[in-house]
Amino acid sequence: MNAIQTENLTKRYGKHRGIDNVTLTVPEGDFFGFIGPNGAGKSTTIRLCLGLIAPTGGSVRIFGKEVREDPIGILRQIGYLPSETAFYNGMRVRELLKFSADLRKMDCREEAERLCQALDLDPDRKIDQLSLGNRKKAGIVCALQHKPRLYILDEPTSGLDPLIQREFYRLLQERNKEGASVFLSSHVLSEVQRYCTHAAIIREGKLLTMGSVAELGHTGVKRVTLQGIDRAPELPGVRSVKAEGNTVSFLYSGAPGQLLSCLASLPVADVSIAEPDLEEIFLHYYSKEGQV
Amino acid sequence: MTVFRHELRQGRVALAIWALSIGMMLGMCILIYPSMKSQMDQVGEMFAQMGGFSRAFGMDKINFGSFPGFFSVECGNVLGLGGGFYAALIGIQALAKEESGHTAEFLLAHPVSRGSVVAQKLLAVLAQIAILNLVNIAITAVCVVIIGEKPPIKSLLLLFTAYFLMQVETASILFGISAFLRTGGAGLGLGLGAMFYFLNIVANLMEETAFLKYITPYGYTDGAQILTDGALCGKYLAAGAVFTLLGIAAGFLLYRRKDIG
């Protein structure tokens, strides 16, 4: 079964673009990254999945059920972290966590305590006195404390320090191993690359590509770094050239043999040919659209 | 009833401030009655001769010398304005504050239906208005005992009922409007609350504008009419009931379909 299945999902806000014909599949048990720059339509897609906004066209199914058909049944199985974590002023963290658990008619005190400890969050603090990062932590505990079947996390790590980010991903991986599905949006590609098994890239409301993170890396493009020369060889398929001192680096999508024979004739001191990182793949998919 | 309890907790400070402020002014008005009483006959005559002004505030038909007459004008204005503004404020903010405070996404991502959220918020608004009035009734009762007046229980209860219903109607209309808004709209709430009040004053001035009493929730809070008839005016109440139901229905219908973003 698929945790999330959208078909030609479209949302328009009057003249403003929301998302356009997004077809996305997140299998149950997956750790899925949803990548795109700010304003690409990540949050819109997520809000559609939660039934917070109604689609202009297309459909969203969560665990096989149309979202608008059974919103309560679906929301019961989801833990959601909004990108902007705003809460009610005047409440303490503990009260907020209890409010969230009460809305689910559950007692999550034990798990909430464990999560607060893991994320180093003091539950007796008042929410309006918390820093951005600590508010985010409170949001994370709200999303995780009831041990849902599907986690939908919108930009979960923005504002968190690196140590807490790592702990957060450890918790998510733990839940994922227990069978839960994770769907997170991010514009930080390295974290998607590190933790997610599948990913989709969205830009300007359109899905550019979707696949396993490993597959997305196999774009036929290599990052070539050469030492000892200051100019990239003039070959077809060379782009994104960066030259610094006697090191030159570029993306290469041409024939490998051609590159090797060209390198043999150059005074190269050192060579590295590697998979480009997701950042570059991201740019690769952009450029395919003729934008970069 | 988690949302209901949460709403009451969130609104408790505002409720305490409004209830005590209105209660204090109400209490003060009642406590000065004995010293005003002797002068009231002259005041009553003076008011009766002030034509349009007295008519606007319904003071032309009232016996100022009697406690119910005094209460209906002095305290009526305090309860009418104070209670009306409070009702307008909590009504307009009930639904819109979640979006203006960016908490709507948090709240509505929980397994609670929109209909249930609207119903619990509406109940919380009504409960807060009821508490405000109970506090004011208690303060009135204590002050009436202090000044040694024989409490005109029926008249007072009728007046309090009229103001309670006026507050419920005001809150319900603004509750419906609240479903349209994405910001808190406190200014709009107070503005509309004030408009309702002044519409009533205009309605009192001339025959031609009397129809406004059907529109403003203050239409059936006319102390003189209530004390004379010993009952609230049925036709204005009926119009008020229609507006109340329309406001509530709009709140439910709109919020269930609203895009939360």
Salient structural properties:
heterodimer; A: 292 residues; alpha/beta; Rossmann fold; 2 domains; 6-stranded mixed β-sheet; 4-stranded antiparallel β-sheet; 10 helices; 14 strands; 30% strand; globular; B: 261 residues; mainly alpha; 0% strand
Structure described in brief:
The complex is a heterodimer of chains A (about 290) and B (about 260). By secondary structure, chain A is α/β, with parallel strands linked by helices.
Number of domains of chain B: 1
How many domains is the backbone of chain A divided into? 2
Largest protein-protein interface: A-B, 28 and 22 residues
Q: How helical, in percent, are the residues of chain B?
A: over 70%
Quaternary state of the chains: heterodimer
The N- to C-terminal Cα distance of chain A equals: 37 Å
Q: State which percent range the strand residues of chain B make up.
A: under 5%
Largest sheet of chain A: 6 strands, mixed
Describe the main β-sheet of chain B briefly: none
CATH superfamily of the largest domain in chain A: P-loop containing nucleotide triphosphate hydrolases
Going by helix content, strand content and strand pairing, the class of chain A is alpha/beta
CATH class value of the largest domain in chain A: Alpha Beta
Can you tell me the residue ranges of chain A where pLDDT is under 50 for at least 5 consecutive residues? none
Structure commentary:
The complex is a heterodimer of chains A (292) and B (261). With 292 residues, chain A is an alpha/beta fold. Chain A has 2 domains: 2-215, P-loop containing nucleotide triphosphate hydrolases (Rossmann fold, 3-Layer(aba) Sandwich), CATH 3.40.50; 222-275, no CATH class. Helix content of chain A is 33%, strand content 30%. Chain A has 10 helices and 14 strands. Chain A has helices at 42-49, 71-75, 93-103, 109-119, 132-144, 162-177, 189-195, 213-217, 256-264, 278-288; strands at residues 2-13, 16-27, 31-35, 57-62, 65-66, 78-81, 150-154, 181-186, 198-203, 206-212, 222-227, 238-244, 247-252, 270-274. A 6-stranded mixed beta sheet of chain A has the order 6-7-8-3-9-10, with helices on both faces. In chain A, strands 2-1-4-5 form a 4-stranded antiparallel beta sheet, with helices on one face. In chain A, helix 4 packs antiparallel against helix 5 (132-144). The longest helix of chain A is centred in the middle third of the chain and has 16 residues, at 162-177. The radius of gyration of chain A is 22 Å and the shape is globular. With 261 residues, chain B is an all-alpha fold. Chain B has one domain. In chain B, 79% of the residues lie in helices and 0% in strands. Chain B contains 11 helices and no strands. Chain B has helices at residues 2-31, 33-48, 52-56, 67-100, 104-108, 114-147, 153-178, 186-205, 212-215, 223-229, 234-257. In chain B, helix 1 (2-31) runs antiparallel to helix 4 (67-100), helix 4 (67-100) runs antiparallel to helix 6 (114-147) and helix 6 (114-147) packs antiparallel against helix 11 (234-257). Chain B is globular and about 65 Å long. Chain B starts with a helix and ends with a helix. The model of chain B has no long low-confidence stretch (mean pLDDT 89).
